[in-house]
Amino acid sequence: MRFTTGGKPITQRSVWKGWVEIDGKKMYLKSLWEKRYCLYLSFMKKHNHIIDYWYEPDTFWFDGIKRGTNNYKPDFKVQFPSGAVEYFEVKGYETSKDRTKYKRMEKYHPDIKLRVIDKVWFKNNSSILKKILPDW
User: Fold this and answer.
1) Integer Rg of the chain from CA
2) Residue (of 42, 16, 39) closest to 29 by Cα position
3) Alpha carbon distance 60, 15 (integer Å)
């Protein structure tokens, strides 16, 4: 794993956004939580709990919305061994715009499964994950 910003290596503590390369995928992650969740997905992939994951691969449009939030791009797309695909949004805090996106996803794309990974998830899992993921 390599963490860089502007081409220079950086320490984990200084990361809050920047380029990372995990599993041969180069991504510009926007938060330390996104980076940590990506490390978790990498672990899940290595242990065959998921087939693969992608960072911001899809944009969902809300047809007919002319003002305000007319699209949404979830953080991660994950494919499971069953073939099922789910989307995950990593959020430290939720704004009214975020809530609008989630409601519109339910309305315009009811077949898409979206999960929000928030501070509760990190609180419940960080103590275990920092023991098994060295860059956590």
Assistant:
1) 16
2) 16
3) 29
One-letter amino acid at 131 equals K
Residues 6+ apart with CB under 8 A from 50: 41, 44, 78, 79, 80, 81
- Tell me the one-letter amino acid at 40: Y
The distance of Cα 103 from the centroid of its chain, to the nearest Å, equals: 19
Q: What token pair was written down for 25?
A: 């995928």
Contact 37, 90 (CB under 8 A): yes
CA distance 120 to 67: 32
Encode pLDDT of 53-101 as tens digits.
Answer: 999 999 999 999 988 999 999 999 999 999 999 999 999 889 999 999 9
Residues 119, 49: Cα–Cα separation, whole Å: 23
What is the pTM for the complete model shown? 0.85
Q: Which helix (H) or strand (E) holds 90?
A: strand 85-90
